[in-house]
Design a protein that fits this description.
The chain is an all-alpha fold. The protein folds into 3 domains: 16-204, Growth Hormone, Chain: A (Up-down Bundle); 207-262; 264-476, MFS general substrate transporter like domains (Growth Hormone, Chain: A), CATH 1.20.1250.20. 76% of the residues lie in helices and 3% in strands. It has a two-stranded antiparallel ribbon with strand order 1-2. Helix 4 packs antiparallel against helix 10 (208-231). The longest helix is centred in the N-terminal third of the chain and has 32 residues, at 139-170.
């Protein structure tokens, strides 16, 4: 079992600049990585035509990035622990540059998928950046910094939608990827020049078999969940992937318990504070994705339905954008709450605010400004909750496994968003009306989605309440 004896403080080998500058660089990198997850949404319906393929094949352009990001987070976290977090951040930034460049030069499906997978791998930047902050940022800035970095998972998606819609409307769709290439290059340069270089690598061997096993199990599971509505939940392909994913992950878990240097120390992960925080991450990740799917769909529904608000894609993005700003604005608030009340209570508050946002949306959806208010409330809850989770994890794992611990937590959030996407799609297609030959979700389907989102958020409150009170820091 991994010891929780505090590890020696990492040695700084490069020049240390302003702590706030370090936080800004890491948050900017996380924001750019998260932005790439949603940047193709404005052209999702046209991808088949643009890439000269079927609509079903084109849908993999979105799925590939989400699955690659989920796989990358725990693996990048462990690589950061073993080889140094600043190095892994640099590699993640370079992958983002290469992936964006490949996509910018692509006009067919295969190279586009390759580029999108590389962009997904860059999501490892976020958990590694969070773990690095604890080492290089003074304590008075660390909580706020980690809060802001964690919030970039939601902020990138919220800002990315209107930005991408504007670019697509006024420029070529390839411009999306040229913009992300330039932003990624800036991130890479900033990581090299402005992020402190520290000797934080710990002795150990990278668990290649564990990494391959985790990746295989997650890919099978997440592809089945992501494609279940499209293929049919009773389809042999869906069931086969679900069963294969579960069996591979069970075999992976058995292997990880026996190997000397595991990719993920499951004994640490099974500790009650870590386990409950990760399960709460699934519930809160579910809540985050629910509003990201349902609110834009309701805003864009035709007014002829009697409940739709008839907004264009760009208008929808602009109504959603303030939510991203609210998430970022609540980062210092969350850091303050963590200092005053502790991460456990802060997580409870965040999940509770998220649930209240959905309760508001159940009853008030008659105008775009009402959905704006609802989105801002849920975004505030996401910003608070996402900030508290990595703090709870870092309080409960050894310093030598900080990156791995935060990476697993990021993976749990990704699982929550993937499940939410599938559940919301199933609800929205379960009750529809026919308008002009098109099937559109009816008003009750939207309300059910909001009820389910609220239930997931309030479940997060209960799970956070069950996290044991902190007794002592695991490291440092």
């Amino acid at each position: 079992m991994t010891s929780t004896t505090p590890a020696p403080a990492p040695a700084v080998t490069g020049r240390i600049g302003s702590p706030l500058l370090t936080v800004a660089v890491l948050c900017f990198g996380g924001l750019v990585a998260a932005l790439t997850q949603t940047m193709v949404i404005p052209i999702q319906g046209e991808l088949g035509l643009l890439l000269h393929t079927s609509e079903a094949n084109a849908s993999w352009v979105v799925t590939a990035t989400l699955v690659a990001g989920a796989v990358a987070m725990p693996i990048s976290g462990r690589l950061g622990d073993l080889f140094g977090k600043q190095r892994v951040l640099m590699v993640s930034a370079v992958l983002l540059v290469l992936g964006s460049l490949v996509c910018a030069l692509s006009s067919s499906l295969v190279p586009m998928l390759a580029g999108r997978v590389l962009q997904g791998f860059a999501m490892g930047f976020i958990p590694v950046g969070i773990a690095l902050m604890r080492e290089v940022v003074p304590p008075q800035y660390a909580a706020t910094g980690m809060a802001a970095m964690s919030a970039t998972l939601g902020v990138g998606g919220a800002i990315g939608l209107p930005l991408s819609a504007w670019i697509v409307q006024d420029f070529s769709w390839h411009t999306l990827f040229w913009v992300s290439t330039v932003l990624a290059a800036l991130v890479a340069a900033a990581v090299v020049l402005l992020v402190p270089h520290v000797r934080d690598a710990v002795p150990g061997r990278f668990d290649v078999v564990g990494a391959v096993g985790l990746a295989a199990g997650l890919v099978a599971l997440l592809v089945a969940v992501s494609k279940g509505n499209e293929w049919g939940w009773a389809h042999g392909r869906t069931i086969g992937l679900l069963v294969a994913g579960v069996l591979v992950l069970l075999a992976w878990g058995s292997y990880e318990l026996r190997v000397e240097d595991p990719l993920c120390d499951l004994r640490v992960t099974a500790r009650r504070p870590v386990l409950l925080t990760n399960v709460a991450a699934i519930a809160i990740g579910f809540g985050m994705m629910a509003q990201a799917i349902v609110v834009p769909r309701l805003l864009q529904s035709p007014e002829a339905t009697g409940y739709g608000l008839g907004q264009s894609l760009l208008e929808t993005g602009l109504w959603m954008a303030p939510g991203g700003l609210v998430m970022m604005a609540f980062s210092p608030v969350s850091g303050r709450l963590i200092g005053l009340l502790g991460a456990r209570r802060t997580l409870m508050i965040g999940a509770g605010v998220l649930g209240l946002g959905y309760v508001f949306a159940i009853f008030l959806t008659d105008a775009p400004w009402q959905l704006l208010v609802s989105n801002c409330i849920t975004s505030a809850g996401i910003g608070i909750g996402y900030a508290a989770m990595p703090t709870l994890i870092l309080e409960s794992v050894p310093l030598t496994e900080a990156g791995s611990g935060v990476g697993i937590n990021g993976l749990m959030r990704s699982i929550g968003t993937s499940v939410s996407s599938a559940v919301m799609a199933a609800i929205l297609t379960s009750a529809t009306i026919n308008l002009g030959g098109h099937e559109i979700p009816d008003a009750d389907a939207f309300r059910i989605c909001f009820v389910v989102g609220a239930a997931a958020a309030f479940l997060g409150v209960v799970l956070a309440a069950l996290v044991p009170r902190r007794q002592s820091a695991a490291a440092g």
